[in-house]
Amino acid sequence: MNEGLRSALERLPELLAAHVVLAGAALLLALAASLPLGIVAARRPALARVVLGLASLVQTIPALALLALFYPVLLMLSALVGGGIPALGFLPSLLALALYALLPILRNGVTGLVGIDPAVIEAADAVGMTSAQKLRLVEAPLAAPVVMAGIRTAAVWTIGAATLSTTVGQPSLGDLIFAGLQTQNWVLVLVGCVAAAVLALVVDGLLGLVERAVRDRRRGTGFAALGLLLAGVMAAAWPAFAPAPSRPVVTIGAKNFSEQYILARLIGRRLEAAGYAVRYREGLGSAVIFRALAAGDIDVYVDYAGTLWTNEMRRADTSPRAAMIGEITRWAASDRGVSVLGPLGFENAYAFAVRGADARRLELRTLDDLVRVAPAMTLGSDLEFLERPEWAMVRRAYPLNFAATRAYSPTFMYRALESGQVGAISAFSSDGRIAALGLTVLTDPKAAIPGYDALLLAGSRFSQDARFQAALRPLIGAIPVERMREANYRVDRSDSGQQSAAEAALWLDGALAHR
Amino acid sequence: MIPPAVIDNAAVRFDAVSKAYGDAPPAVASVTLDIVRGSFIALVGASGSGKSTLLKTINRLVDPDRGVVSVDGAAVTATPPHLLRRRIGYVFQSIGLFPHMTVAENIAIGLTLERRDTNGRVEELLDLVGLPDDFAVRMPDALSGGQRQRVGVARALALSPGLLLMDEPFGALDPVTRDQLGRAVRALHDRLGLTTIMVTHDMAEALLLADRVLVMEAGAIVADASPHDLLAGRAGAIADALVAIPREQAERLRQLAEARG
């Protein structure tokens, strides 16, 4: 079997189980909330309008944004009750997905109840049913087929949207999809998508059986299909109750770009060699990954000095690189219980890059030179740069007034510069494509952009573990920027030489600089 | 203070009962009336005269704004509505059979609610309304309109109520079925010793089935007479106008028949 397919299938059972548990729990929560709400709303048209309006409003929020929104909400809530509420991982995913699943169930519940023939309701009253008897004997059975159709829709949505929970640190089939998209590993993407689609089809089919059984009043079939569904969720949840494996498991985090996937695999190789079992949690957003480490959701990952400096420490000034690392190390240990094991030896800074030909023609060497030509240029950036404090810091030092700005995913940002759609981009200094495409990186004579030394960070669980430290120490100061660029390029290039993150990590492991 | 002897004889009593919907003129305007046990009453009037509203105040499908309705000497508000309704049979034009239940389950619903055994009661009731036993296992959508209303009557009689309320019970049926079912209900009324109140807009049906006809207009009882007195023109102008229609029709039919002969 193909190596890439084998490694993708290896991770599939664990991720599929996590996906099933998450989607199942979200659907049950949505049911528990929307059925009573639907019953109450069906009796009060004014309330039904408000509730359905709110549920529709939730639906208009993109699922990705809804997941991200729960992070600050849960942080605030946690602060209110004095801590203890996890803002990342399972809980925000569960709440966001449940909220998302609310509308179809609620809408069909109200429609089903309101659509019952008024004569039947009058008869139910006239034969002497109480409200509870009317609901149980008449309204529920008559509305059930419509409600079941809503539950089916909700289930399919939830299974699809659960792939997005990867971005808030909850493992799901999205781990495969996001990792595959970033590293151009289409086998991973395909395995993730196919698994999610098959899961959705199977669940839809079983719920369809329940729906038909409810409509035709065939109890046996209905209960059998329901039993299969519940058994599936239980089986998926089983490992959570099983005894922990004897080898300690280290969870390695990674953000959503190639360098991070490669470094995660490199760390993983080293830890596996030292006898640890490892697990990857990839595709985490910049905003959540450090908190995931501090909260113990992940145990180790690589972050960048400038990112921690501006995002986590909220600093708007700059310091020399060495002093910055020192301050970050002290702050992380004292304020967050996170240890900085050390810098890896390279920097991945924001770097303004232009095409080599343009640099020669327009005599562009520094950011000061860029100020001169910016009004006639479009700036291409990654998706977050324009909102980041670094952009504000650069603009304070250099009055850059671009004609327009456009945001791209990293791969397309380089293509946009190559094709002339934009004149300059906010590149990454460790990116292999800078050299491969013959781009010129403009210098920063006023030192406006903070240093972005790659730092190896570990959470509290392994900070006192000597074997763990010994396994990772050889990485400190061992990755010169040229090697990192080469490894990144192996994953980012789009020709036949393209490699997986694991293959690039294997190469990088053999190319470490030894002091 | 009402003399006990009067209470004894009244199955239903309305005492200054009024009901209005919103700002519209009252649907029922201060109706005071006694209905004697064992009588078959027809409540006749045009659409919107308030006859259905008045009927529904008895089993509290409608609660009056003012006044007191009593059944068997006790105010209807003294009993929780669901218990009150189990003592009163109710048949209405739309029938309202439960579409997800068999005919037997529909008929026995009152027994189910009371957690009583059915013990052959379904067959007895099917027999009573003139339907074969094998109808028990059918679903309502497999029945004709007349058969459905027979099931509706059987369901209303399942808990052996003394009082049967009927709101346009035969309004949606063809004339032949209508006539058959009307006679069947009248026979049941006599056989079971019921007190029956039937709302209808059809004066001929009222005259043929009832012991006493009440005519309603604009929420008030404007005539209260036996069929015989109505036909004799002793019930006032409004009642005469209503009686004139079937009478003229009958007269024209008779002339038609003679002309041919």
From TrEMBL, chain A:
Domain of life of the native organism: Bacteria
UniProt cross-references to InterPro entries, sorted A to Z: ABC_Gly_betaine_transp_sub-bd, ABC_transp_perm/SBD, MetI-like, MetI-like_sf
Span of domain ABC transmembrane type-1: 16-207
Membrane topology: Multi-pass membrane protein
Pfam families the UniProt entry points to: BPD_transp_1, OpuAC
Chief location bin: membrane
One GO CC term, this protein: ATP-binding cassette (ABC) transporter complex
Keywords, in A-Z order: Membrane, Transmembrane, Transmembrane helix, Transport
Residue stretches spanning the membrane: 16-38, 50-71, 77-103, 142-166, 186-210, 222-241
GO biological process: glycine betaine transport
The UniProt record lists the keyword Isomerase: no
Cellular compartments annotated: Cell membrane
Keyword Transmembrane helix: yes
Molecular function per GO: transmembrane transporter activity
Similarity remark: Belongs to the binding-protein-dependent transport system permease family. In the C-terminal section; belongs to the OsmX family.
Protein name: ABC transporter permease subunit
Automatic annotation (TrEMBL), chain B:
Keywords on record: ATP-binding, Nucleotide-binding, Transport
Biological-process GO terms, alphabetical: quaternary ammonium group transport
GO molecular function, one term: ATP binding
Domain ABC transporter: 12-243
InterPro entries given in the database record: AAA+_ATPase, ABC_SmlMolc_Importer, ABC_transporter-like_ATP-bd, ABC_transporter-like_CS, P-loop_NTPase
Keyword Protein transport: no
Transmembrane annotation, as ranges: none
PANTHER family referenced in this protein's UniProt entry, alphabetically: SPERMIDINE/PUTRESCINE IMPORT ATP-BINDING PROTEIN POTA, SPERMIDINE_PUTRESCINE IMPORT ATP-BINDING PROTEIN POTA
UniProt-recorded name of the protein: ATP-binding cassette domain-containing protein
Protein source organism: Sphingomonas cavernae
